[in-house]
Amino acid sequence: MTADAVIVTLVSSLISGIVGVGVSTWCFYKLERHKLKLDLARRLLGNRYSICGDAFSCAMNEVIAVFADSDDVLSKMACLYDTLQSQGKPNADGALIDFLKSVCKASGLTQATLNDTYFLKTFNARN
């Protein structure tokens, strides 16, 4: 084996290793982001029985970090916040439904078979 062949083998091995690490890092990042979004969507939907409770509030505070790449979720969250801060809370149910739907869509959950009332129905509702 000549020196040129050894150099070509080493360089191609190095390049393939670097490309492999880059691709696997990117895939791992995407998978972790997806898992974070699914977990937060699960906690938002699971704790919606008490929107004034600590668990729901904690999950809502995490939305800005986990869904920072989704303008739709952030705008629906701002709309929900404004609705809940307004006097009499007009259309709070509609704003909550829109927000939860956008969270489900951004996290890859399908809600095609569910109508809007399923987003409001809860077991052991507190408030």
Structural overview:
By secondary structure, the protein is mainly alpha-helical. It has a domain at 37-120. Helix content is 72%, strand content 0%. The protein has helices spanning 3-46, 54-66, 71-85, 92-106, 117-120. The longest helix has 44 residues, at 3-46. It is elongated, with a radius of gyration of 22 Å. The N and C termini lie far apart (77 Å). The relative contact order is 0.12.
For the structure shown, list the relevant keywords.
127 residues; mainly alpha; elongated; 0% strand
Which overall shape is indicated by the principal axes computed on the Cα atoms?
Answer: elongated
Per DSSP, the total helix count is: 5
Structural class: mainly alpha
- If you compute it from the alpha carbons, what radius of gyration comes out, rounded to the nearest whole angstrom? 22 Å
Major sheet summary line = none
Order of helices and strands, N to C?
Answer: HHHHH
Total strands: 0
Mean pLDDT: 89
Helicity range: over 70%
Percentage of residues in strands: under 5%
Distance between termini?
A: 77 Å
Stretches with pLDDT under 50, minimum 5 residues: none
